[in-house]
Structure to design on (191 residues):
């Protein structure tokens, strides 16, 4: 799988930092990079992390979890060890992943990659299964029921409002988890 080196028992949590899959590891882990936390109660604390372009494995669980720093989609991928991949719902990665979900086959290994689009100067998430790219189920040409963003005035400034789209994609994720993982979907309850 290409991720590891952590001695923190149980699950290993993989987050996104600076456009890379990030695994926090103990001090002294070969290849680890030191980063100083900037927010929250641990601001100023040094941590050690390993960075990766992709993660892959068998899809074995998923929840939507409310935490101290917001809400995350948590996807459990297993390849020898189980990694919980956390995707913040308040990020572009949430909508990118949710748009892929209807085309993900939960019976096949899932490859989740992070890349950088130089032309648009932004990071992006993509998926593959069996070496083939998983395409978005919702495009401009075929929105497939995805509500378009709407323009609205906020304090005298015209802004795009994606709330209807985000709610739709939230339902896509919860339906996927409820369908794929026996027992239904409850926020914060692993399957």
């Amino acid at each position: 799988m290409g991720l590891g080196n952590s001695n923190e028992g149980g699950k290993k949590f993989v987050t996104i930092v600076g456009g890379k899959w990030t695994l926090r590891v103990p001090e002294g882990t070969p290849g680890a990079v030191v980063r100083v936390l900037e927010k929250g109660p641990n601001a100023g604390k040094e941590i050690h992390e390993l960075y990766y372009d992709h993660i892959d494995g068998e899809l074995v669980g998923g929840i939507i979890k409310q935490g101290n720093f917001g809400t995350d989609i948590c996807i459990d991928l297993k390849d020898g060890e189980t990694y919980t991949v956390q995707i913040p719902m308040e990020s572009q990665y949430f909508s990118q992943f949710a748009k892929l979900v209807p085309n993900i086959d939960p019976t096949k290994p899932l490859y989740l990659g992070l890349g950088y689009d130089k032309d648009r100067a932004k990071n992006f998430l993509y998926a593959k299964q069996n070496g083939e790219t998983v395409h978005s189920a919702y495009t401009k040409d075929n929105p497939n029921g995805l509500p378009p963003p709407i323009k609205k005035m906020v304090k005298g400034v015209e802004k795009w409002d994606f709330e209807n789209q985000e709610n739709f994609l939230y339902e896509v994720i919860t339906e996927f988890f409820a369908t794929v993982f026996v027992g239904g979907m409850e926020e914060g309850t692993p399957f």
